[in-house]
Structure formats: structure tokens, C-alpha cells
Amino acid sequence: MEEPRIGVYICWCGNNIAKMVDVEAVAAEVGNLPNVVLAKTYKYMCSDPGQDLIIKDIRGHHLNRVIVAACSPRIHELTFRNAVEKAGINPYLFEMANIREQDSWVHTDRSEATKKAIDLVNAAIHRVRFHEPLQKRSVTVDPATLVIGGGISGMVAALEIANAGKQVYLVEKTDRLGGHVARFDLTFPHLSSAKQMIHPIIQRVENHPNIDVFKQSVIRDVSGYIGNFKALVQNGQPEPLELKFGNIIAATGLKSFDPSKIEEYGYGKFPDVVTSMEFEEILASGKVLTKHGKEPRNIAIIHCVGSRSKVYHEYCSRTCCMVALKFVNQIRAGLPECNIFEIYADMRAYGKGCEEFYAESTHRQIIFLMFDQQEKLPVIRQAEKTDDCNMLIEMDEKLSGESIEVPVDMVVLMVNMEAHDDVKDVVHAIGVSLCGNQFFIEKHPKLDPVATTTGGVYIVGTCQGPKDIPDSVAQARAAAARILATIAQGSVAVEVTTAFVNEEFCCGCQTCIRVCPYTAISFKEDKKSSEVNEVLCKGCGTCGSACPSGAITSKHFTDRQILSEIEGIMSMSYKEI
Amino acid sequence: MNFRPTIVAFLCNWCAYTGADLAGTSRMRYAPNIRIIRVMCSGRIDPTFILTAFQQGADGVLICGCHPGDCHYQTGNYKCLRRFKLISKYIAQMGIEPERLKLEWISASEGKQFAELVNEMTKAILNVGPSKIKSTLEVKHLKS
Fold first, then answer.
1. Range A259-410: architecture per CATH
2. In chain A, where are the structural domains located?
3. Does domain A145-254+419-492 have CATH number 2.40.10.10?
4. CA–CA gap between residue A116 and residue A122 (Å, rounded)
5. What does the pLDDT look like over A204-260, one tens digit per residue?
6. How many whole angstroms separate alpha carbon A467 and alpha carbon A252?
7. Using CA atoms, how far apart are residues A520 and A38, in angstroms rounded to an integer?
């Protein structure tokens, strides 16, 4: 092995790192370590000038190893791998030290944070000395795509891919396409018909020669990797159908929060307390009537039901405020005399045309009443016979500071959008992760909100988080474009950090075969040793730590590399101060 | 002289490391004594790594993986758990206090739990004091 010549770059990340970590001190401390040719700091290593700095140094100083101490490798490892590759270094001769997410952002003592950064950079220096170049491997991409979920996001993505002449398998859990949008009457902020928008899309999907639609179907036993997945479609038939595809789009959406959990609102107890989804159907029927068939004289719309709450969901569902204003406009159009009460906690009107829609809707003779969600929720109770209404809402009106009673004949609860109960089944099937709110986690919150950390798996629409129709459609088309790009290339680079068996050391005990979750290891009788199928291996490294004779190398996570990392951490440990 | 423990942590890439990153993006504060090493799966954590960390002077070793049933590689965390149980017995025989080795499941969304875990463990290590393994090994080495 050639003598390592390491370049170390400490990123300021503006003030994100530099404020808590003395980046110059880190550079000075590690600059004199063996094999370190240079140690520099820079404001934003991920910027083009930052990357150029690395590229120039690699050429000028003949560096053969590079370390960037910056954010999490989950964010920018690939960026820097590509940068060093541009300068002619194998991308696996690069290592990152996480001094932002796991240092500057979580500590408050500058000297401690700086020492930690020094330890982490030192660990990376120790590790990178033992890095070995790995050759990129690519696999062919099956041009078919699996789309899970037949709502607007799934259908739009499917059409985009199918229109490019590629096969799509669209799997929908229910017996119909269209998802939530098909149940809406109008859309905000233009009050155009949801059905007129969605029905042609459903038609096109169902009749498209390149789209196979499987309704009342679920996907199971997904196996494989980017470019080459397979799975079974279960749809009531005795024999499940096997599908092969190169990419997956999860468009599984969200569901409405069940408001019966909130006792104050009496949902389930009072027949005229309905959810926003149920009210869509009432509106679609053409006439707003109570359960007794009467025209309501007073309608209240309660916002943030299950949203922005410490008890239920802390997040905002993003669309309900505008949907509530849409309802206001629709009610007013049909019932000019009706009293409409908007009982809200905060009015959120972002998005194109939405603030204008809010301003305009305030002219519909609506009574806006504010409640403090953290203090006290409005309480709905049955009105007395002597009252001239069906129910009464007791609430502390925040702006006036008064406790009031609101007469109502009908109440619409603007329910939160929450994850499906069976979301974990999808998670396990396709290997994505969930955030605390049970939404799928995107690869990068800003720069890659469409892909996931699993190659070939994309997330679109509300399964990634509550969003409106335009955002869902944009994400769906973006995922489709990404997939079409890999199909057009015909092949895609895959994980090369797989396991490797050294036949010389293999004792033939076959422990590795028993621990491998992917049946990627087989036993070669002629050589009496195990062998890894690199295509099936996903690089978890479990076999490497199970091998009693040390014959298995987990590439890029070798024993030598990890043990060196430990040594690096410990070699500088400041025991006393 | 203040005792500043060093805790070496092995975190799986998909759940625990992501959870630790989330603690960062959420600006949760925790004790600065932890040094995280990323592995792809908790199933990769070789008992040698744990022993080496102790041998090099770590006062504590923390292992975090995905919750049972949530492993990105299906079952790696179960293998980790089995090895952990064995190595726990082994380190006890070596005279390493049980508080020094900990295994916890941390999901990608459990940034808060991770921060709390680090604080708890740091506190526990402060209570048991500095690890003597490194110095013991050095003495033995001199004698031999």
C-alpha cells in the first residue's frame, strides 16, 4: 500500500460548527499527526469553492486520502466522494467526521465540543489510513416500476412513467383509484371541482396500455435491490402474482384522524358533528342538511382537530385551514342566511393564492372565533329544548377574553392527517424509515425530499408528510423523472461495501450462511469454503462479526478500519483538564 | 482532578445514527463525553470492538441499533442482542463493571431518547468512576 497522504478539511458550516467548535484549533491539533499533509478550515466545504479546494489540493499536494469534518455523512458523504473522484481519487478513500449533528449542535461547552471534534477527526484519520479503493459496480435496471397507492400522487407518477413508454404496476389497497381527492367536492383556493380533475386521471390510468392496476391488492415479500426488485401481489387470488421491477414509488398517503378520541367534541355521540371528509360528501350531495333533513341555520367549523396538540399530533396538517375556508365559501353559496362560525386556533394560509383566498373569504359574513388550543378546547353539548338550536359550543374566545356559547345545528371537525395504522407493513416491505410522526423519511429534508436512503425507493405525496395537491403532484412527477433517468441510463451504481470471504482463512463452519438474512452466502463444496454473492449482499456486516476465523471482510467496515477508529478516538482522550 | 469519562458508542446507520443526527438537527443538548462510530448494522458490532474500546481506555461502551422488528437488514439487531448478552457475562468476568456496557434500541425518530440515554449513561459512568482496565493491562504487560 502506498504511504497515506491525508488532507483534512474542517468545515465551519457558517456559524453552525464554528460557533461551538474552534475549527482552527482542530486543524492545528490534527495537522501534525502522522500522514496528515495538510489541515485546513473553510466556511462551507460543500459549496463549489469548498469542493474545488479539495480537488486542487489533491492535485497540488498529491493527496491520496481525504477527510472532511462537517455535517453528518448522511447529508454530504456522497457530495465529497464525488468531489475526490473528480480529482482522480477512489471515492472510498474519503472519510467524513460528523462534527455538526453529533457535536456542535448538541453541546454547549466550546472547549468540550472542540475536544470532541479533535477526537472524531483523529478517529477518521486513523480509519482512513486503512481505507482501500473499491471499484464501483453497476447493475442493469429493470424498466418496470412499482407504484404503491392509487391516490393522486401514485396515479400522476404512474402516468408520467407510463407516458414515457415504460411499464408501471400500480397496487391499490382499496377497490377504487383516486384516494382522498376522489372524495373531495371542490379544491382550494380556486374552488374548482376535484372530481372533474381526478376522474380523467383515473380513466387514463385504468386505460393506459403501460399501466397494470391491481385493486384490493397488497404487496408482500419485496426482495432485491435498486434496478432489480421483485415482489408478490396478493389480491384475493389463491396464487399471488410475482412482479419484477427496477424502482419503487411509495404513495401510500395518510388517513383522517379519528376525532372520537377527543371527548369535548362529542363525535359519534352527536349525529351532526361530522369530520371534514364526511362534510365533503355532504357537500357533494348538493345540499347541506342535518341528519334530520333540515337546513342548518348555524354551522361551526372547528380547526386543528388532533393537530398542533401536545396530546395527539404536534404537527400542523397544512391543508385544513384552507379546506375550512373552502367549506365556508361552499356553505355560503348554498345557505345565504346561515350563521357560519370559524372556530380556529391560528389561521395558516401559506401557498400560492392562499392568503388572498383567506382575505377574500373573510367577506363571506363569517364569524371568526379564536380558541387557545393549549389552554382549553371548545366543548360541544346538547342544547336544551328551549334553545333555538341543536347543540351549543362552550368556548373561551381568546381575542375578546370572554367565555361564550355558540349555537349550532351542525359542526364540522377539521381533522388532522395521520399515518395509516398499517404503515409499518409498508415500511418493512420496502425498507424505508419513519420519522416520529410516522411519516416516511426522505433522503435529505431539503435537497432530496423525494428519494429515500434505500436505493430505488421513492416517496411521494402525503406519506412523506401532510401536503396539498400541487405539492403532492410536484413530488410525484419529480420521483417519476428520477426513475426515468435511471431507466434511460440502463444501469445504476450499487453498493460495493459488501462482504468478501478469504478462502485461505475460511474454516468451512458455515456460521456466516446461518446469519445472513439475504441468503447471499453459499458453501462451495469443492473448496470447502463460503462464498458471497455480491449481488445479493447488502453489506450489513453481520457475517463479518460472526466469522470465527476472521475470514470475512466487510468492505469499508473492516475490522482494521473500525479498530483504528477506536484507537483514534482513545489516543487523544483528554482524561484530565 | 475531574474525571472526564469517554464513552465509545457504536450506532447502526439506519436507526440509531439517524436518531443521533436528529438529536442534532433538533438542537437537543447532551453530555459531550460520547464518541460515535458508525456501522451499517448493529449486527456488524464484533465483540472485539467492544473489548478493544475498553482495552484502549474507554470508560463506557454504548451500542444502539434499530428496535426489534425494525432492523434495516431484517434481523441484525437480534444477533447484536445475543452477542451483547454473551459479552456482558464475559466483561463481568474480566472485572469490568456492568454499568460500563449498555445496549439500547434507538429509532431514527428518537433523537430525544438518544440525548436522554447519553446523559443517563454519562451519569452512571461518572458514578462508577474511571475504568481501570487499561492500566491493569499495562501493568500485566510490564510484568510479562
1. 3-Layer(bba) Sandwich (3.50)
2. 6-134+566-571, 145-254+419-492, 259-410, 499-555
3. no
4. 10
5. 999 999 999 999 999 998 988 899 999 999 988 889 999 999 999 999 999 999 999
6. 13
7. 42
Q: How many residues would you count in chain A?
A: 577
B4 touches chain A (CB under 8 A): yes
Please tell me which residue of chain A has the smallest CA distance to B129. A575
Closest-CA distance, A117 to chain B, in angstroms, reads 9
Q: Which of A72, A116, A559 is facing B32, going by the closest CB pair?
A: A116
Pairing state of beta strands A298-305 and A410-415?
parallel
CATH topology identical between A145-254+419-492 and A259-410: yes
B1–A119 C-beta distance less than 8 A: no
Q: Which residue of B has its CA nearest to A571?
A: B56
Instruction: State the pTM of this model.
Output: 0.79
Chain A residues with CB-CB distance to B14 below 8 A: 433, 453
CB-hemisphere CA count at 13 Å for B18?
A: 25
**Shortest Cα–Cα distance, B67 to chain A (Å):** 12
Identify the DSSP state of A103: I
Per-domain residue ranges of chain B: 7-137
The fold for domain B7-137 equals Rossmann fold (3.40.50)
**Among candidates B24, B73, B83 on the partner chain, residue whose Cβ is nearest the Cβ of A102:** B24
